[in-house]
Specification:
The relative contact order is 0.14. Helix content is 34%, strand content 16%. Helix 7 links the parallel strand 5 and strand 6. The chain has a seven-stranded mixed sheet, with helices on both faces. It is α/β, with parallel strands linked by helices. The longest helix has 18 residues. The chain is built from nine helices and seven strands, in the order H-E-E-H-E-H-H-E-H-H-E-H-E-H-H-E. The protein has one domain: Thiamin diphosphate (ThDP)-binding fold, Pyr/PP domains (Rossmann fold, 3-Layer(aba) Sandwich).
């Protein structure tokens, strides 16, 4: 049983302290995400939670098209691919057929908040007992850097070369706030992983979400405000700084809905 699997033992060199090891639930292969990308960090956190809670054998992940699709190469759990935007619909079917399983989706903003807006909102409104992991980097990362629903006003993308203009393209969509108002949403939070302190908070949020799913009282929705150095045409350090100064004022971090508080 996976619950009985012992954590790998590693020895630090003399005079040094071991501060990190790869969780056994993360496939031992190099990741090919762009330098500075947040996907690898979130992958690691999810798999640390899966390992530490002993749920690897009963966890099923669903990822669609986009950078999210690479999750199959790294997450050592049962995975199902969904058409673009349809991950929450596929996860709904899996959870209803296997109610004893832990089911989560892993989606980007172009997928979840654009092509899959309808599926996302109706899944949460029904209160499906799944975990939704939402990576918001304000751009279509894989397909050419096009504007996404979460793209900021004035932000330059391949389809908004002069910046996003509200009269033409509308306002950035704060879908997590919309989700928090739905009665089927059980736990809703927005986190980030661009600093060590934020990584620690993000992991706690993931731990809570996977625990809450076992309550079968609604959907757990976690947004991760992330960077995309390649899509933003920045170095990783520049992207982290830009995220702090521009993304976080629009998408403030913190819990939006917590059981017992809302």
């Amino acid at each position: 049983m996976f619950e009985d699997r012992k954590m790998e033992t590693m020895t630090a060199p003399a005079g040094m302290e071991l501060v990190y090891r790869r969780p056994s639930t993360l496939v031992d292969t190099p990741m090919h995400y762009c330098p500075g990308c947040s996907h690898g960090v979130v992958h690691r956190l999810i798999m640390e939670v899966v390992e530490e809670t002993g749920i690897q054998e009963k966890t099923i992940g669903v990822a669609p098209v986009g950078c999210s699709v690479f999750a199959y190469n790294y997450l050592d759990v049962d995975m199902q691919e969904a058409p673009h935007g349809r991950a929450t619909a596929v996860a709904t079917g899996i959870k209803r057929v296997h109610p004893d399983k832990i089911v989560f989706t892993y989606q980007g903003d172009g997928d979840l908040a654009a092509i899959g807006t309808g599926e996302t909102i109706h899944t949460v409104n029904r209160g499906e007992s799944i975990v939704v992991v939402f990576i918001n980097n304000a751009i279509y990362g894989m397909t050419g850097g096009q504007m996404a629903p979460t793209t900021l006003l004035g932000m330059v993308t391949s389809t908004t070369p002069f910046g996003r203009e509200q009269p033409v393209m509308g306002y950035p969509l704060k879908i997590t706030e919309l989700i928090a108002h739905l009665p089927g949403a059980y736990f809703v939070t927005r986190q980030a992983v661009h600093t060590t302190a934020h990584v620690r908070k993000a992991k706690k949020a993931l731990q809570a979400a996977f625990e809450y799913q076992g309550h079968n009282k609604g959907t757990c929705f976690l947004e991760f405000v992330s960077n995309c150095p390649s899509g933003w045409k920045m170095t990783p350090l520049e992207a982290n700084d830009w995220l702090e100064k521009n993304m976080l004022p629009m998408y403030p971090l913190g819990d939006l809905k917590v059981p017992g508080r809302n």
